[in-house]
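Narrative progress, year one. The postdoctoral researcher (J.K.) led the effort to move from monomer predictions toward full complexes, under supervision of the PI. The following entry was the first complex the group processed end to end, covering 222 residues in total.
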Amino acid sequence: NAGVTQTPKFQVLKTGQSMTLQCAQDMNHNSMYWYRQDPGMGLRLIYYSASEGTTDKGEVPNGYNVSRLNKREFSLRLESAAPSQTSVYFCAGEQGNYGYTFGSGTRLTVV
Amino acid sequence: GQQLNQSPQSMFIQEGEDVSMNCTSSSIFNTWLWYKQDPGEGPVLLIALYKAGELTSNGRLTAQFGITRKDSFLNISASIPSDVGIYFCAGQVAFASKLTFGTGTRLQVTL
């Protein structure tokens, strides 16, 4: 049982390049979330999806798009990467009263 | 977006010492959760609290749900090197609703 799986684990992009961060869960979560974590800061919500086919903006959505392809998969896309998007990105699935299960993160550097 | 006030921001302690940290909010939560993030990994759930005044233990960890429902506390007894990491509190208003995270407490343990 993998839980929440994120790919890739590491990525280096040049400014202006695009990429998609993948997240898949096998725990039948309804809601899924994308967070970013910067040094010295907590977790900031980028986008979330309460159910298949729906997505909503979080606290810091600018520069990102998401897609809830099906119940299992929730991807995060950077259309034109900027150095300010250098961060660690976490995907999470909601488990009712047990909070979230997080993936192990994608470490993204934009140069 | 709202983040919970978590203190202290960081702690440097010696192995064997006890640790206390807390989390406060201006609004009421019906569930409090405590997570630990090991270096290079995603946060993992440690303890979940569902009732005002509740005291719950998980090994050397003990957490309490404040009676006002606006705060929560985490204690770690007899710290060991593997306790190193970032500890996050999180509040949840209703079942399966979005979590609000604390800013994190970074714990360092010296031998």
